[in-house]
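Subject: Protein record for review, amino acid sequence with backbone structure tokens
How to read it: Take the token row as a discrete description of the fold.
Enclosed: The protein record, placed directly beneath this head.
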Amino acid sequence: MKIIKIRDKAAERVVTQLERRGRVNIEAVEDKVKEIVKTVKRTGDKALIKYTKFFDKADFAKIGFKVSKSEFKDAYKKLSKEQIDAIRDASRNIKLFHSRQFQELDFEETVRGVEIATILRPIRRVGVYIPGGKAVYPSSVLMTVIPARVAGVKEIFMCSPPDSEGKVDPAVLVAAEESSATAVFKVGGAQAIAAMAYGTETVPKVDKVVGPGNIYVTAAKILVSRDVDIDNPAGPSEIMILADDYANPEFIAADLIAQCEHGQDSLALVTTTSDSLATRIVQNLKLIKEKAGRKREIDKALKNNCWIFLTENLNEAVELVNRIAPEHLEIMVKHPVNVLKKTENAGAIFLGEYSPVAAGDYAAGSNHVLPVGGYAKTLSGLSIRDFTKTIAIVSCSKVGLVNIEKTVNVLASIEGFEEHAKSISVRLKR
């Protein structure tokens, strides 16, 4: 990890590069993904059988892609009571957090006799993608399916790649059952995205596709986005920690290592006003790293994608945060709320030394599907708003229509729409 003073010339080059990070470049895989999407769109299940056998080594020629009731039942048997309870506890907290986002505006009077309001209505059918392979992500199931269910989505279809025996990890299936997914299909990669976007004989067509994935999945989502809605672009995981002398360097180092555990492309940043804290963070990183499990990935991430920025004051540190717009921001200062008031750009914020990112990743209830690559400047984390749309309601009495008649007539006249004006006058003649 490199320590750099924010007012050095080299620091500005680094920050500028960080601001430009995360733009998805799908050129390397675009042709291959286009072919997969095109084939799935044309031949449906036949293409899914072909690609699943090629990529996942599972042969579905004689058995179905849909996870059966018996497979769900077996999944519960393979998990311990402690594991099932953890999924249920996290599920409860996530439901509570997202249910508080679901509120409609009451009618408000803009002019006497004219009332307006906004109502929320759910998207009817959503597709969720959950990665598989080397890692298992039951938490991502909870974070995507539960907000959709709370929002009132009627049908939630999930795709996740199978192993070579044609099975989906039991923890993923239990999470899907606990969060009330409508159905789960044993399909992965770009072919899964295409299947949900266009439908096959087995996999239903959806209105929106959400969920993380590798570059092939991301490329497929971008390609099908002309036909279905998609969520935020995915990318390497990120953490930025804003700290002063009050902060515990061991806690900071532990959180940086935890983020680097995601992979060698993970981004781990610190901005602090304290030279001594920066030195102690580096010392703790060396100690913790030696005992870490995924040491190779952590080493590469720390070497290539990690910086400690030294600032003159907290205002300068906050400005740096707002420029970089990290996925996760931890604020470890004596008065975190004061810093929070000035913070504009972050996917999720964790206040104080006892609020690590891991709490939000799993059990606090907030959503861990967050904007990366600087998209936190304009995008939000996954919420029920991703599964609903707003509908404007207008209610005018005759008095209300009289009160806005002149405004409508003038504007309609400017735009040359005489019949718009007449649709008002025809009512008021009576």
Notes: The longest strand covers residues 114-122. Residues 81-99 form the longest helix (19 residues).
